[in-house]
Amino acid sequence: MTEDLSQNEAITAAQNTETAEASASGSQLGRRKFVKDVATAAAAFTIVPRHVLGGRNFVAPSDQVTLAYIGLGTQGIRELLPMLANTQIRVVAVCDPNKNAIGYKDWSKDGMRNEIRKAIKDPNWNSGGDNMIPGGRDNGKSIVDSFYANVHPELQYKGCTAYADVRELLDKEKGLDAVKIMTPDHLHGILSMAAMKRGKHVIVHKPLSNRLLEGKKAIAMARESNVITHLVPWDSNGDMGPVMAYINAGAIGTLKEVHNWTNRPVWPQYPTIPTDTPPVPDGLDWNLWLGPEANRPYHPDYTNMVFRGWYDFGGGSMADMGHYSLWTVFNALQLTSPTIIEPNLSHVCAMHDPVPFQIHNDFSFPMASSVRFKYPANGSRSAVDLCWYDGGMRPAIPEELIEANKELPTEGMMFVGDKGKILAGFNVQNPQLISGDKSAAPVAATADKRSQVEQTSAALPKFVDACKTGKQYPGNFREAEYITEAINLYALALRTGKLLKYDAANLKITNVPDANKYLSREYTTGWDPASI
């Protein structure tokens, strides 16, 4: 790493910082003042040595953020490519318990391979393994090394190190600044805590954890730590501004219900536990893949794209999509902890010839479900119900749409008041007042017009800037408590199949005592958060 920042780099860094601060305050700098401030900042960055500015978790403005990439499945690789393209980040290590590209699944046969070839400027790159879908730590290392060699040969990067075990990575990579976690859901919380304990900045995909108490511990650790944390789906959240303008203007009266529905799952979900025992693929350390979860025979129906359908390994459809749509809703409506969680779910039947029976299932998510959360009043907001739907289930079509000979979209969101309704897209986009007091609809109800691609492209520079300044930014763990709580209570209600009464102060279910065992997990040896 270079210790000093060039003039151009300093100006770019100052521009990013000033733009972020101006946006946050709603003010704009005059051109003359901006140029003056930039010049001052450039000089300051150039002459102040790192040891003067230093401190625990500090990354000098002139340095790249060194990062370890944990989890090299298809989505992991997909999000690795733009990270490599960010010249302020240097990926120095990759980690995955799977060595070879065997058994991976993706949305298209050749799409991932073609993305990789383009990004690393190697039209002949192949994944090896079963020569199907890329994945695994060998592919991860190959992609990182090839990118730096082909795209930035002038920088003379050394090759990155590949690890099977995250614990070994964290112990050996002493100079590491940050980690990105792209593993299955059951490892998110524990690996985030392990990184934070070592003073590493953390960026992780959804969910923060698939156990409520583990998620609470990770959030508490983030509050007590100076490290930067970020939950990826925040970068694609919708804009609640227009909806709140309608609500605050009284256009739908008093808000009573929020409905959000998705077409997920779009992957197979298995209603029975596998009974066959295929061999573990060559190069996969099955025990490391299981991590903190109890041992069981390997089966491909647990791994890769389908892990999210199992309570032990995933968080269901709401964990997959709810952060994208609802996190901004939680913030705008100041939703905290629900008091009641009411599930409705599909079931599967089989035959013990000649008698049919319903399969008892507390191990995998249902094919379709809806879950109603009851939130108490908060300040000037009255009590409100939040209703989540997946597997093709949707709320009843409102009369306003029936009269117009319309139906609800496949995915969407609806806000229901005692005097009207607002219909919007799944991420709160394009809200429309379909009934209510249209004269109360404010002229200023305009949404953030940036595309999700534009929002996501701005995310990595913000993370880099936060690592260098030490200033947390929106979407950090500290802000994710109540969406994390809701998503884990969703899974808990479906797993028990019962209406649950939740005591948030004491973190327990009061009416179904047996449900409390699912609030946490029994950690296998070597994976307890206290010791990892």
Structure commentary:
- The chain is α/β, with parallel strands linked by helices and 532 residues long.
- It is built from 16 helices and 17 strands.
- The protein has helices at residues 7-25, 31-47, 50-53, 74-85, 111-120, 137-151, 166-172, 188-197, 212-224, 241-248, 286-290, 316-333, 399-403, 452-457, 459-469, 481-496; strands spanning 65-70, 89-95, 161-163, 178-181, 201-204, 229-231, 255-261, 340-345, 349-352, 355-358, 369-375, 384-390, 412-417, 421-424, 432-435, 500-503, 508-509.
- The strands form 3 sheets. Strands 15-14-13-7-12-11-8-16-17 form a 9-stranded mixed sheet, covered by helices on one side. A 6-stranded parallel sheet has the order 3-2-1-4-5-6, sandwiched between helices.
- Strand 1 (65-70), helix 4 and strand 2 form a beta-alpha-beta unit.
- The model is unreliable at 1-54 (pLDDT under 50).
